[in-house]
Amino acid sequence: MLYRVKHSSMEPRLYAGDLIFVLNFFKLKEGKLVVAKHKGSFKIKRIHKIKGDKIFLKGDNEHPDKDVSITKTEVVGRVFTLPKLFRS
Question: What is the pTM of this model?
Answer without folding.
Answer: 0.82
